[in-house]
Amino acid sequence: MKTELLFQVSNVGNSTNILWHDCPIQKRDRQQLLQQRGCVVWLTGLSGSGKSTLACALSRSLHARGKLTYILDGDNVRHGLNRDLSFRAEDRSENIRRIGEVAKLFADAGLICITSLISPYQKDRDACRALVPEGDFIEVFIDVPLHVCEARDPKGLYKLARAGKIKGFTGIDDPYEPPSSCEIVLQQQQGNGFKSPCEMAEIVISYLEEKGYLRA
Ligand SMILES: Nc1ncnc2c1ncn2[C@@H]1O[C@H](COP(=O)(O)OS(=O)(=O)O)[C@@H](OP(=O)(O)O)[C@H]1O
Ligand SMILES: Nc1ncnc2c1ncn2[C@@H]1O[C@H](COP(=O)(O)OP(=O)(O)O)[C@@H](O)[C@H]1O
Known about the structure:
The protein is α/β, with parallel strands linked by helices. It is built from eight helices and seven strands.
């Protein structure tokens, strides 16, 4: 006797016979509640470029305007979810993939999800972009030259990398691929140094405002 499946199940990766469950409360309902639109603000740049500082400035400023944000910081996520990952290329890719998937969930929850990780490879960033609806992935390149990051060296890691005590350090003996096209580039002003973290945050917030992410 032939057994009919009651539901259309599928196989995804190594997960077999799985079924997607929908809920009547959807993203648009959550966005209505929060009076904002869920999206991913993806900060990328070298170690020491100011990603974490900008993420906090952005979160603070948006919070003050009554907007719900959440920061996924590479360093922090590596303390938990991604603690099994190293800094070799495959593990960095997996780090980025997982953070992209989590960011997708936060954006679907209606939050403005700010990610702050080096994310050195273009193809991995592009893959994360492809996870969310068109327009909802806002890639922000903090374009600070290596020599400036190295002079800042707040954790002393560049010094250790130069001394050969850390192998495969981004910018020293591991690649960083700058975005070929992204929504926002924050860079040094001609002869003026860098904008303050608050000024940078305002640039990103103006973009979000203009694109309608700060209303439902
Ligand atoms: N080998 C190597 N290369 C680069 N960075 C290193 C490395 N080892 C440790 N660290 C510290 O880890 C932080 C980067 O982690 P990320 O998760 O953002 O990196 S990645 O996106 O997976 O490339 C990075 O933090 P930030 O300075 O905040 O970027 C470093 O403090
Ligand atoms: N816009 C800025 N102008 C000058 N210094 C900055 C700026 N943003 C961050 N910094 C400083 O640069 C260093 C690295 O910043 P951090 O946010 O930790 O970078 P990342 O997260 O990219 O490693 C810190 O000492 C921080 O105070």
